[in-house]
Amino acid sequence: MNNKVAPIVGRQLTQVAEYADIVIVGNGIAGLTAAMEARRLAPQVSIVMVTDQPHPTIHTPALKQFAVGKIAQDQLLAYPAGTERLQRIHVVNARVEAINAQGKYLQLQGGYGFGYGSLLIATGSKANSLPLDFPGRDFDGVLTLHRLHDYLNLRRRLPEVDSAVVIGGGVHAIETVMALLHHGIEPHWLIRGATFLSKVLDRPASELVLEHTRHAGAKIYTNTEAVGVVGRLGSAIGVVTNQNEMLPCQMVLVCTGTSPDVTLAKQCSLPMLHQQGILVDEQLRTSVRDIYAVGDVAALKNFQTGVYETHAQWYAAVEQGRVVAAAMTGQYDRVQHAMGVPWHATNVGELYMLAVGTSPGAIKGATTLTDQGKKRYRRMSIIGDRLVGYLSLGAVQPDSLAIKRIIDEGLSISSVKKALLKGNFDARKYFSQRQSRSMREMVTSGKLPVVMPNQHFTPLPAAQSLPVMQPAALPFMQQPNKVTQQSAPVLPILPTVQPSVPIMTARAAQLAVQPTAPILPVKREMQPEPQRNTRPLFASIYHQATIHVWEETPRTTTDALASSCNNGTKVVESMLVPLPARPVTHNLWTYSQKIPAVPARKPDSLEPERTGGAKGEGKGAINFLL
Predict the structure, then answer these.
(1) 22-78 confidence digits (pLDDT tens)
(2) Could you give the maximum distance between any two Cα atoms of the chain, in Å?
(3) CATH code at 495?
(4) How much is the CA Rg of the chain, to the nearest whole Å?
């Protein structure tokens, strides 16, 4: 880890103007993937990542396995250490407070700024913790699990814990429950509703998952909420539920989901459209020109339902990072970079769960087929002979990407409908037969097959649709080592919102009228000269050409970033094992790889199940502080 980063604090700043062609806020997997892909597509551009995280990019799905000791801390790295330095991706350790969209610069903590040509917001999500007025939320042992430091805190406490209460009804909660069981800790799992993962699973599927989790040793309480944490001498010793029951424990783990971090959308000098996430189009463009959003914070339109949705999954973040890199470098191709329907694959206890496409009822005219057994459940949503949604629970992992491809491409499932429903679908055989039929038709007819657009997935009209406009051209500069720009079809995008005093927030108006730092212009040259007193870390920025030569006005930059300091500076680099690149064309073998599962270990001993509240607890007023 040799990538030096100068902290943005106090008087150590050198008054210089800093600028990069692509600036990425956040160092999650979506942001880092975008940076690496942009470097591959456009070697000549300057790329900077701004983050306030004290660690490099990590493999967040592995945090629960790290907490219980299945993997070591260095195995959390998403890419080998030094990846940013080798890819010439400069990392700045600072906090972004606001965006000046007219001046095209970021306002950093301390009143300093950083100019950009294209800005990518990859700020991820924030945890939904307990309400501020929740009794006992500040007791020692109450943890909200989201970031690396939360799991480091959990790992230090596990040796002293015999039982724990897990609050939440989603995938994060059940993964935490199974991790505790692996460590020999008795979990009490509180689910507010009647079913687990109610937005994805119906009641039969939920009961199958919960039954397997009970069999593994967990105690599950449905239709149950925590109303307070009981403590003694500042430490948690139990949880009181709405069923007037006290569950003794030494730790309370809050896994109640996440919400997109749209702070920068609210702190932008031009109004940026956002609801549950920042609204983006197919190229991940926001409603403000030259600003993109990706990862947990981005809300894309589901072309099956017409509703804008966020997808807080690892695979979705990687895919979005690749797409937005192509868009920012002018190499977006609608066919090659189509992301298709959302999907999610994970382990829920001893079962594999795969959800692809839209759940039943979301698409008009869809028919639902189900198949249920002792240890399996499958549900298909079909229209005619086309698959639009698929759910699988069982001991066998299905061909996830093969099923996603069938939905994305609108392929006929008339010959494999029963196999998909029974779980014995053979992807190799299916795609081989399709290829053989295509070749035979081409030979007998003498004509090349015509690729028709998918008419099957016509989106239903959304409750609210956004107006669209034609995108502006974004040509590349012609350099000696130029990158060939591929022609991309013109697509409708979200509108570029012009500044308007009545709809601007007070914070945005303040940024537009009273910038906290003077804006220093930079000459429009193909290879601008380095500024005086420039930090060595960013010296190479001024030797690299910009891709934004279409601007008619001089590019506005910012001032002051910290000077290089070799003593006491924090090192931020990235990163678990390298992710395989997605092939441009799909083939038969792409969809037949099996991922080994990590079986949960049953605890050696568990206390006998409690059927009522703790002894000595009254049914009247509850004293949360003993």
Answers:
(1) 999 999 999 999 999 999 999 999 999 999 998 999 999 999 889 888 899 999 999
(2) 85
(3) 3.50.50.60
(4) 26
Answer yes or no: is 624 within a domain.
no
Structure confidence at residue 294 (pLDDT) = 97
Q: What is the mean pLDDT of residues 88-107?
A: 94
Total-model pTM: 0.71
- Listed in order, strand segments (DSSP E) in 63-214 are 89-93, 96-100, 105-108, 112-121, 125-127, 142-144, 163-167, 186-190
Residues 244 and 317 in one domain: no
Residue type (1 letter), 158: L
Q: Same structural domain for residues 296 and 324?
A: yes
267 and 229 in a single domain? The answer is: no
User: Measured between alpha carbons, how far is 525 from 546 in angstroms, rounded to an integer?
Assistant: 9
CA distances from 236 to 134, 247, 250, 540 (A): 13, 11, 6, 53
Which residue reads 């212009």 in tokens? 521
Number of domains, the chain: 3
Which long-range CB contacts under 8 A does 241-245 form with residues at least 24 apart? 241/190, 244/613, 244/619, 245/612, 245/613
pLDDT at 349 over 90: no
Instruction: Please check whether residue 36 lies inside any domain of the structure.
Output: yes
Look up the domain containing 420 and give its range: 347-444
Q: Are 294 and 26 in contact (CB under 8 A)?
A: no
Residue 306 is predicted with a pLDDT of: 87
